[in-house]
């Protein structure tokens, strides 16, 4: 995963220079995600869901940081699921080697990591005097392949509150383009948090913990082997 992310970042910079004459991004939407019924791991031994949903985003952002424009917007896509974690992130067992694997809890913690990353990114950008901003969102309950391995009650829920992906895209687009939004703002679809137009609401109380966000940043640098210095 780490090598693949690095290759993609390098290719993006090369392509931007070829197309535009310079490598400049005005918006970076981080939307890679997965929800695995059974535990699986990346080639580096990382638990797959956290690896794809957070560590890959962290590394990719660090590598393409020089490509961002002066007032770029970064959007790690989270989920309302970040509010449903029972425990928060366990830094002593981040790869779920010691605990019984819980597919939903793993996903909720990965989505919480997205919010921590967003808020810490915004704080560090402001501290460095930069105009680069970071917002996050729950895109809504889309009719995608994310839940393809889950059956039973999930099928009923999906049919009741899900929405076509193209209609939900307005939520991500607002997060990426509405420059009145502030660092760390969190958007959700208006109707039950699953569908409808985007509104700004508070993220979970747990996601506001600056100490945990700072700890996750340092842990992410350690795991992906990449320092992410903003300034």
TrEMBL record:
Keywords: Oxidoreductase
Family matches, as InterPro entries: NAD(P)-bd_dom_sf
SUPFAM superfamilies with a match to the protein in the record: NAD(P)-binding Rossmann-fold domains
Gene3D superfamilies: NAD(P)-binding Rossmann-like Domain
Record bears the keyword rRNA processing: no
UniProt feature coiled coil, ranges: none
Domain of life from the UniProt record: Eukaryota
Alphabetized GO MF terms: oxidoreductase activity
Record carries keyword Oxidoreductase: yes
Name of this protein: RDH13 protein
């Amino acid at each position: 995963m780490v090598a693949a992310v690095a290759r993609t970042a390098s290719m993006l910079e090369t392509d931007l220079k070829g197309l535009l004459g310079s490598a400049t991004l005005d918006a970076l939407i981080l939307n890679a995600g997965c929800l695995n019924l059974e535990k699986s791991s990346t080639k580096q031994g990382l638990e797959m869901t956290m690896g794809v949903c957070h560590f890959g985003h962290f590394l990719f952002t660090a590598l393409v940081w020089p490509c961002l424009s002066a007032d770029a917007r970064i959007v790690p896509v989270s989920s309302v699921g970040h509010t449903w974690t029972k425990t928060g992130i366990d830094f002593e067992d981040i790869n779920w080697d010691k605990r019984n694997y819980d597919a939903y809890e793993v996903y909720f913690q990965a989505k919480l990591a997205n919010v921590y990353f967003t808020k810490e990114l915004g704080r560090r950008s402001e501290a460095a005097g930069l105009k680069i901003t970071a917002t996050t969102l729950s895109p809504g309950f889309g009719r995608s392949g994310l839940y393809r391995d889950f059956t039973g009650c999930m099928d009923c829920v999906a049919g009741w509150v899900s929405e076509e992906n193209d209609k939900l895209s307005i939520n991500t687009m607002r997060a990426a383009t509405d420059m009145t939004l502030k660092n760390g703002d969190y958007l959700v679809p208006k109707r039950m948090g699953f569908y409808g137009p985007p509104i700004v609401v508070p993220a979970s109380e747990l996601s506001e913990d600056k100490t945990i966000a700072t700890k996750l940043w340092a842990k992410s640098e350690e795991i992906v082997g990449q320092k992410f210095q903003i300034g």
